[in-house]
Amino acid sequence: MALSESIEYDKLEIVGQYKAVQVRKATVIKKDGVELTRSFERYVLNPGTLDASDNLVDTDLSAEPAEVSSICTAAWTTDVKALWKAKLIADKSV
Question: Which residues of 38-76 are buried (b: 16+ CB within 10 A; e: fewer)?
């Protein structure tokens, strides 16, 4: 009777004008190779945050799996980052 646990990133979506990347991470528990349970965690990655001088600081993707990091890198072009930065600055004045 062997129990195993694995992590799968089973759903990755690029959403909206600012190319937010929605990630669904599944934790799968198996007993003797037969799936017993699957639970989900969701989170969203955005292109960056503003520092105190309103410079865009890129989101740190070093802890993300290669597939997630690659999608973010492809989606977050210079133009997308500029739009995201402008949105963050505009939101500060609201």
Answer: eeeeeeebbbbeeeeeeebeebebeebeeebbebbeebb
DSSP SS3 for 56? strand
Domain positions in the chain = 3-92
pLDDT tens for 4-59 read 999 999 999 999 999 999 999 999 999 999 999 999 999 999 999 999 999 999 99
Pairing of strands 34-45, 48-50: unpaired
16: CB partners within 8 A, 6+ apart: none
Tell me the whole-structure pTM to 2 decimals: 0.89
DSSP line for 9-46: EEEEEEETTTTEEEEEEEEEEEETTEEEEEEEEEEEE-
